[in-house]
Amino acid sequence: ELKWDFRPLKRGQYDEPMTDVYLIVNGKSFFVSKIYYSFSETLRSGYKDYEIPSDALASCRGWWAGAGIDYWVIRKDNELIVTGRDIGETTDENGEPGDFTGKPVKVTTIKLD
Questions:
Q1: For residues 95 and 64, which has the higher predicted lDDT (pLDDT)?
Q2: Is 73 helix (H, G, I), strand (E, B) or coil?
Q3: d(CA 15, CA 30)
């Protein structure tokens, strides 16, 4: 069983939300990150829209003031790989709105018993 655990912390210098992100695996808590966003779980029905890999076991999104991060979990053999990717709202050189999606980066690996 996998589920996210978002623990809000004291707000930052510019009133930004701070959160400790944990992944609960079969009742055991694993630290993922401490970061400047408010988080919510991404439903499987939203994976395609958010460009989350279809084989992800769980996903969440952190967001604040036009920027954020996606996290997702993939199982590989006896490990869970947590991957993160920066996201944000942008404008192009003509002032047209758009979206920024960064390159996925491994955040942590959780070994399964």
A1: 64
A2: strand
A3: 27
